[in-house]
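Write out the 3D structure for:
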Amino acid sequence: MNPDIGAYNAAQDPTTRVLCDALAREIDLGLPQAESKIWHRHPVWFLDGNPIVGYSKLKDCVRLLFWSGQSFAAPGLAPEGSFKAAEARFTAPDQIDAATLQRWLAESKMIQWDYKNIVKRKGRLERLP
């Protein structure tokens, strides 16, 4: 696990820490080639500079966000925002279904919208081949 992500997780309350550690382990397992770092104060994983997945502590849950998740075929993610992102929310570690999370991670490698260049394209997203 990236040390900065480990520090982020360690700063959480005990239940949230276990949940975040479980998410980080599963994401690292599903995206071993990804670069992970703290981005905008939250753990995020990138492929070729494009944000793929991350999580953040909200008031009453941990939100797992896939930047291109609205385009995934696997069910279980809810649309988030006005672009292509989708999320799942967790309040306890036992709510994480590892098989489902691995399906989402597999899709995240194949289905990506180009968030890396969204500013250059003035807010317009293009799907990566």
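The chain has one domain: 3-110.
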